[in-house]
Amino acid sequence: MHHRRNGARVIVGVDEVGRGPLAGPIVTAGVSLPLDNRPTWLSELRDSKQLTAKQRQRLAPLIREESLCWAIGWVHAVELDSLGLTAALRLAFRRTIEQLDEPPDVVLADGRDDLRLAYPTEMIIKGDAKVSSIAAASIIAKTARDDWMIELDSRYPGYGFARHKGYGSAEHLRALQGMGPCPEHRQSFAPVAALSQPQFTFDAAAS
After folding, report:
1. Pick from 17, 5, 86, 85: which is nearest to 49 by CA?
2. What's 193's DSSP letter?
3. Spatial distance between the Cα atoms of 141 and 60, rounded to a whole number of angstroms
């Protein structure tokens, strides 16, 4: 890798999950993989969407234990509503980088958005399928967010968060219609904004 040839020691791959759901946080992760003595599980790394939940849950602790450093950044729904999606994504990535045990010499990121980080950053289209550290970050972010949504399912029952993870599935939209949004819903997203108040059915005979 040219960054290593140029003297970079801490090369951090970053990725995000949760850009599109109607509820829950945006979660970003950063991972710096060891440059020498590469772990055997590196060959198993893929974009998190190409792995099963069981595969992600097996790989995530290995990544956390054997990486040079890693960190997670969170931006919750209320912040996203206040900031807007682009600014919220940048904030989540900034929080990730700030929490790393070592500052990065260079950041490798999936996509083409300008993350406006205070470190040299290379944007790589489909980076989660091309760069091991970005794939590792996608797994860390995905498992962290999924665990959070499963916890929210017990806190706010009836929406099905454990199953659809906050995305706009038919089940989720039906629950929104019947129950209205909860505090973890993104009020700035159109399907939620249209249902900002609980929907009630009144019995005309009782009125």
Report:
1. 17
2. H
3. 9
Phi, psi torsion values for 29, nearest 5 degrees = -140, 155
Strands (E), 113-156: 121-124
User: Is this prediction's pTM over 0.90?
Assistant: no
Reduced to 3 states (helix: H, G, I; strand: E, B; else coil), residue 6 is: coil
Residues in a beta bridge with 12:
32, 107
Cα 104 from chain centroid (whole Å): 20
Q: Mapping DSSP to helix (H, G, I), strand (E, B) and coil, where does residue 50 land?
A: helix
How many beta carbons lie within 10 A of that of residue 86, not counting itself?
Answer: 11
d(CA 168, CA 127): 26
List pLDDT tens digits, range 5-51. Answer: 667 789 999 999 999 999 999 999 999 998 777 777 877 887 788 88
**Using alpha carbons only, what angle is made at residue 62 by residues 57 and 67, rounded to the nearest 5 degrees?**
130
Residue 48 CA to residue 70 CA, distance in Å, equals 16
pLDDT in tens, 71-84: 999 999 999 999 99
What are the C-alpha distances in Å from 163 to residues 19, 92, 158, 167, 179?
A: 17, 24, 11, 9, 17
